[in-house]
C-alpha cells in the first residue's frame, strides 16, 4: 500500500506502529507510525509533523546476510550438486530422484544458500505477498522464500484462494523455491493446478466476481522415490517392485508437468565408506560465486526483455534466433532428438539448460560438451 | 464340429469329476469311438494332463457354463480347437509327459513347421534385447518358426523379429484364447495372427493365473525341436522352460552373458548342466544339420539404431580425453563417483563425455548413475 501511496504522490502515510517498518523503504512518502485513531488526529493538529516521521534507517536493524544450512555439509553427491548449481544459475526446474535417505530433502533445503541475494524490488514483492498471510512480519523479507508444502495441502492452500483470497504456497514461493517433496504423493488435481501458473508465472483467482492476481515466479524442486518401495536402481538390489509396478508408478506422475521439468537427476544412496571418508564439500559461498558469473551474463542478455530474466524463461523466438545465428550446434541436436525421441519442448529445454551451462563455463556460444551435459540431466534412466 | 472333439470336450469340461466318474460317463455314452476311446483306452485320464480341468474359470462361473462358453466360441469361430489324436494336433506334444488333450487356438492351423522356442526373462538387459533380436531374426530368415510366450521382454522381441522377417511365429498363452496377457501386447497378438498362431491349453475365460505359466512352458518346449534361453535369472520362468526341455529330450541352447550380470546366471547354470552355448546362429543350426544346411550368416550388430560403423571403428575415433574415460569403464557397472576417482577427474567434467559415449552406444547408463561397456 505504501507503494500505491508513493504512486499517488501522497505526502504522508499513517501506518499502524507494529508494521511501520515494512513500509520503510518507500522514502518518498513520509511514513508516520501511530497507535490509535486519536493518535492520528493529534499528530495532524501538531504543527511539526516532521518529528513523527519514521526514520527508516535508524529504526530497522541493518539487513544481515542470513546464515543457514550450507552445501558443505552434504557429503559426496557431486552430480546432484552440479545439477543444482546449474538449476539455480538459470532458475531451471529440477526433479531429484532417489531412494529414501539419499539426501534429496537435505540438498533441496540448501539451494537457497547458493542463490543470489534479492534486489530491493524483489524484496518488496516478496514482503507484500508474505504480509498478506502473516501479519507479524516486522521488517522487509531479505531471504528468498523456501516453501515446502506437505502433499496433503488443500487446493486453496496450494495455489491460493479461500473465502478471502490469500496467496497460496506457490505465491509464497515467489522469487524463491517451491519444494514438492514426495512428488508422487501429490494428487493429480494439485499438480494439474500447477500447470497454468507455472506457465504464466502468475495465478489468477476469481471470487465474487472479483479477480485477484498473485505472482508466482518460482524455481520448482520436486523430489521423489524411483518406485513404490523406493529402492529401484539401488545397488543393494532390494527393490520389491515388479516391472509393471514401476511402470505404473511413473505413469501416474503427470506427463505435462514432467515435460516442463528440464532437469532430472538421480541421487544415489551414500555408501558407508563414502559416509565416513568423504571430504568436506564445497561451501555454498564458493558455488554462489561461480554462479555469479552466469547471472551477470543473463542480466546483460535479457536487459531489454520485460518477460525474461533467466535462461529458463527464454521464449522460443530467442532460441530460434540462437539456432539461426549458429550459436547452437545443430547437428548434435538432431542426433539427440532422434535418439531420445524428445518433444519440441524437450529439445528447447535441453538448449536452455545448455545455455546456462555455457554461461557458467564463460563461453559465449553453446558447444557440444554443454549440450551433452544438458542431455545427461534430461535422459535419465528411470525405468526400462 | 468334429464329433470326436465334441465328445472329448464334453468329458473334459462338462463331466470333469473324479476318474471313476469319467469311466461311468464313458459307459453312459455307450463307449463311442473316437476321441473318447483314445482318452480312456490309452491309460485313462490320469495319464493326460489335467490343469485345464482344475483351472477355475472367471469368478462366479459355474462349471457347466465353461462348457457352454467353449461350445459357443467354437461355433461362432472366435477360436478353434484341436485334440490329441486328431488332425493338426502338434506332433511334438504327443509324446511329452502330461500332454494337453485339447488345444484352443486362433490364427493359422499348425502344420509341420520347424519350430524353435526362444525364451528369456521379462526384465532383460540391453544385451539380452540385442541377442534375442539377432537370434530370432536370423532363425526366421532361415525359415524356422519361432515359438515363445507373448510375455514382456525377450518373448516380445523374439515374436517381433520373426514377424519382421515375414516368418511365422507361435505364441503359447498362460490364459484362455480370449484373454490376451499382458495387455500391452495386444498389438503384437494381432501381428502374430497375420502369419502365425496363438495357442493355449486353457479354456476361454481362464485368467492369466500365476500357476498357469510354469505349466504352459511344457507346451512351449513340447512343440519345439529346441529351446534357446537368452537371459534368465537363477530362479525364473525361462529356467523352468529350460529344465523341462531337458527332461523332454529337446535340444537346449543358452546364450552366455557377463559373469557379473545377474540376468545371465540362469543361462550359465544351464550351460554347466549341459545346454549348448550359443554365440552365433551356426551353433544352433549345426545341431539340426540333418534338416538344415548351416547357412553362413554373419553376425550383425544391427540392434539399437546405431547407423554408421561397428563398435570397433567408433572406438578408434574417440579423442584422447574421451578415450581415457572410456577405457576406465568395464563390463561391470561402475558408479559415476567411483569413475571420477579412477580417472582422477571431478564428476562434473565426466558428465558430458559420458552422455556422449552413451549417445554413441559405446556405454550404457544404468539406474543410479552407473555405467558399463556395451559391446
Spell out the key features of this protein:
heterodimer, A: 384 residues, alpha/beta, Rossmann fold, 3 domains, five-stranded parallel sheet, two-stranded parallel sheet, 17 helices, 11 strands, globular, B: 375 residues, nine-stranded mixed sheet, three-stranded antiparallel sheet, 16 helices
In words, what does this structure look like?
- The complex is a heterodimer of chains A (384) and B (375).
- In chain A, strand 5 and strand 6 (166-167) form a beta hairpin.
- Chain A is of the alpha/beta class and 384 residues long.
- Chain A is globular and about 75 Å long.
- Chain A is built from 17 helices and 11 strands.
- A 5-stranded parallel sheet of chain A has the order 4-7-10-3-11. In chain A, strands 1-2 form a two-stranded parallel sheet.
- Residues 57-62 of chain A have low confidence and may be disordered.
- Chain A folds into 3 domains: 2-59, no CATH class; 71-277, Rossmann fold (3-Layer(aba) Sandwich); 310-376, no CATH class.
- Chain A is 42% helix and 12% strand.
- In chain A, helix 16 (344-360) crosses helix 17 (368-376).
- By secondary structure, chain B is of the alpha/beta class.
- Chain B is built from 16 helices and 12 strands.
- In chain B, strand 3, helix 6 and strand 4 (145-148) form a beta-alpha-beta unit.
- In chain B, the strands form 2 sheets. A 9-stranded mixed sheet of chain B has the order 1-2-6-5-4-3-7-8-9, with helices on both faces. A 3-stranded antiparallel sheet of chain B has the order 10-12-11.
- The interface between A and B is medium-sized, with 29 and 27 residues.
Amino acid at each position: 500500500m505504501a507503494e500505491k501511496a508513493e504512486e499517488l504522490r501522497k505526502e504522508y502515510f499513517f501506518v499502524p506502529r507494529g508494521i511501520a517498518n515494512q513500509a520503510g523503504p518507500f522514502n518518498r512518502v513520509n511514513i508516520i507510525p501511530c497507535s490509535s485513531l486519536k493518535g492520528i488526529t493529534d499528530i495532524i493538529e501538531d504543527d511539526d509533523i516532521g518529528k513523527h516521521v519514521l526514520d527508516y534507517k535508524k529504526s530497522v536493524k541493518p539487513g544481515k546476510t542470513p546464515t543457514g544450512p550450507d552445501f558443505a555439509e552434504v557429503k559426496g553427491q557431486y552430480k546432484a550438486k552440479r545439477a543444482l548449481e546449474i538449476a539455480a544459475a538459470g532458475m531451471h526446474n529440477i526433479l531429484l530422484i532417489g531412494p529414501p535417505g539419499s539426501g534429496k530433502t537435505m540438498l533441496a533445503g540448501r539451494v537457497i544458500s547458493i542463490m543470489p541475494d534479492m534486489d530491493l524490488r524483489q524484496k518488496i514483492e516478496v514482503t507484500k505477498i508474505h504480509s498478506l498471510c502473516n501479519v507479524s512480519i516486522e521488517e522487509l523479507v531479505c531471504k528468498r522464500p523456501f516453501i515446502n508444502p506437505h502433499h496433503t495441502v488443500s487446493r486453496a492452500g496450494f495455489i491460493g484462494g479461500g473465502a478471502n483470497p490469500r496467496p497460496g504456497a506457490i505465491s509464497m514461493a515467489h522469487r524463491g523455491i517451491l519444494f514438492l517433496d514426495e512428488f508422487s504423493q501429490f494428487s493429480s488435481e494439485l499438480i494439474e493446478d500447477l500447470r497454468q501458473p507455472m506457465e504464466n508465472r502468475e495465478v489468477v483467482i476469481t471470487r465474487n466476481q472479483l479477480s485477484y492476481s498473485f505472482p508466482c515466479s518460482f524455481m520448482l524442486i520436486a523430489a521423489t522415490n524411483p518406485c513404490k518401495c523406493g529402492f529401484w536402481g539401488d545397488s543393494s538390489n532390494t527393490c520389491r517392485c515388479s516391472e509393471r509396478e514401476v511402470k505404473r508408478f511413473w505413469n501416474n506422475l503427470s506427463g505435462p508437468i514432467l515435460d516442463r521439468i528440464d532437469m532430472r537427476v538421480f541421487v544415489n544412496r551414500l555408501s558407508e565408506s563414502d559416509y565416513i571418508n568423504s571430504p568436506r564439500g564445497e561451501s555454498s559461498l564458493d558455488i554462489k560465486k561461480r554462479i555469479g558469473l552466469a547471472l551477470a551474463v543473463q542480466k546483460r542478455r535479457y536487459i531489454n526483455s520485460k518477460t525474461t530474466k533467466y535462461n529458463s524463461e527464454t521464449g522460443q523466438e530467442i532460441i530460434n534466433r540462437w539456432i539461426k545465428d549458429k550459436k547452437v550446434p545443430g547437428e548434435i541436436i538432431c542426433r539427440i532428438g532422434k535418439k531420445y525421441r524428445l518433444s519440441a519442448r524437450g529439445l528447447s529445454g535441453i538448449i536452455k539448460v545448455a545455455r546456462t551451462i555455457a554461461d557458467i563455463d564463460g563461453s559465449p556460444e553453446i558447444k557440444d560438451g554443454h549440450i551433452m551435459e544438458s542431455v545427461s540431466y534430461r535422459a535419465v534412466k528411470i525405468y526400462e | 464340429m468334429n464329433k470326436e472333439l465334441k465328445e472329448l470336450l464334453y468329458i473334459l469340461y462338462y463331466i470333469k469329476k473324479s476318474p471313476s466318474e469319467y469311466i461311468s460317463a464313458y459307459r453312459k455314452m455307450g463307449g463311442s469311438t473316437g476321441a473318447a476311446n483314445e482318452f480312456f483306452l490309452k491309460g485313462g485320464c490320469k495319464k493326460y494332463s489335467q490343469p485345464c480341468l482344475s483351472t477355475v474359470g472367471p469368478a462366479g462361473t459355474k462349471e457347466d457354463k465353461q462348457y457352454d462358453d467353449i461350445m459357443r466360441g467354437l461355433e461362432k469361430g472366435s477360436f478353434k480347437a484341436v485334440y490329441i489324436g486328431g488332425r493338426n494336433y502338434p506332433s511334438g506334444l504327443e509324446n511329452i509327459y502330461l500332454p494337453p488333450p485339447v488345444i484352443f487356438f486362433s490364427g493359422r492351423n499348425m502344420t509341420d513347421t520347424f519350430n524353435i522356442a526362444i525364451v528369456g526373462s521379462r526384465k532383460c538387459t540391453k544385451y539380452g534385447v540385442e541377442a534375442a533380436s539377432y537370434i530370432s531374426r536370423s532363425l526366421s530368415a532361415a525359415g524356422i518358426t519361432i515359438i515363445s510366450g507373448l510375455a514382456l521382454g525377450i518373448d516380445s522381441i523374439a515374436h517381433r523379429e520373426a514377424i519382421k522377417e515375414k516368418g511365422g511365429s507361435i505364441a503359447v498363452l498362460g490364459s484362455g484364447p480370449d484373454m490376451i496377457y499382458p495387455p500391452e501386447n495386444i498389438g503384437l497378438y494381432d501381428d502374430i495372427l497375420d502369419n502365425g498362431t496363438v495357442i493355449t491349453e486353457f479354456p476361454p475365460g481362464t485368467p492369466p493365473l500365476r500357476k498357469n505359466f510354469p505349466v504352459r512352458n511344457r507346451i512351449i518346449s513340447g512343440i519345439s525341436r529346441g529351446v534357446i534361453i537368452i537371459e534368465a535369472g537363477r530362479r525364473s520362468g525361462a529356467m523352468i522352460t529350460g529344465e523341462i526341455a531337458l527332461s523332454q529330450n529337446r535340444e537346449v541352447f543358452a546364450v552366455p552373458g557377463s559373469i557379473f550380470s545377474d540376468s545371465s546366471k540362469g543361462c550359465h547354470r544351464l550351460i554347466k548342466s549341459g545346454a549348448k552355448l550359443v554365440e552365433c546362429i551356426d551353433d544352433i543350426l549345426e545341431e539340426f544339420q540333418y534338416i538344415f544346411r548351416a547357412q553362413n550368416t554373419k553376425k550383425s550388430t544391427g540392434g539399437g539404431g546405431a547407423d554408421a560403423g561397428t563398435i570397433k571403428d567408433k572406438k578408434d575415433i574417440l579423442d584422447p580425453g574421451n578415450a581415457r574415460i572410456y577405457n576406465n569403464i568395464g563390463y561391470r557397472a561402475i558408479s559415476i563417483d567411483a569413475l571420477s576417482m579412477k580417472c582422477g577427474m571431478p564428476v562434473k567434467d565426466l558428465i558430458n563425455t559420458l552422455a556422449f559415449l552413451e549417445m554413441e552406444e559405446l556405454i550404457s547408463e544404468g539406474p543410479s548413475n552407473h555405467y558399463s561397456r556395451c559391446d
